[in-house]
Specification:
Helix content is 26%, strand content 35%. It is an alpha+beta fold. Strands 1-5-4-3-2 form a 5-stranded mixed β-sheet, with helices on one face. Strand 2 and strand 3 form a beta hairpin. It starts with a helix and ends in a 20-residue tail after the last strand. The model has no long low-confidence stretch (mean pLDDT 95).
């Protein structure tokens, strides 16, 4: 797969996540997620509606920050931070997405609570270069 396709797929995922999680622009988000979207996450109801309904039910202060992003063919993995959603800790997530014909069609995730420097045995932040305030 070409570098141009990988770059396009990474940009697509970043635009989609920004539209849904940060801007909460559900109409715009519909163009990124397939109506037949397959959701493998244990905490999200099936399909695109399950994802959108989850976000609608979370505080408006929810924010997503993308970190490292890699693409291989039709798959993109983005390491990011979800914050401001009302939990006692931010979530650090590796989201794995499959893209087909320029639209997100399938998703898996791996999620951890973000820890403070005092809680971290490695003393290295889980996301970015610094620990959260």
């Amino acid at each position: 797969m070409s570098a141009a396709i990988s770059a396009r797929n990474k940009a697509l995922v970043l635009e989609a996540f920004d539209a849904l999680f940060n801007k909460r622009d559900y109409k715009a988000a519909e163009q990124y997620w397939s109506p037949d979207y397959i959701q493998h996450s244990a905490h999200i109801e099936p399909g695109r509606d399950g994802l959108f309904n989850l976000v609608k039910g979370i505080r408006a202060t929810l924010r997503y920050e993308a970190g490292t992003i890699v693409a291989d063919g039709d798959f993109v993995i983005v390491h990011g931070r979800f914050s401001g959603f009302g939990a006692t800790a931010n979530w650090i997530a590796a989201d794995i997405l499959r893209i087909e014909d320029g639209i997100l069609v399938e998703h898996w995730d791996v999620i951890q609570d973000e820890v403070t420097e005092e809680q971290s045995k490695s003393k290295a932040p889980m996301f970015g270069r610094t620990f959260p305030a």
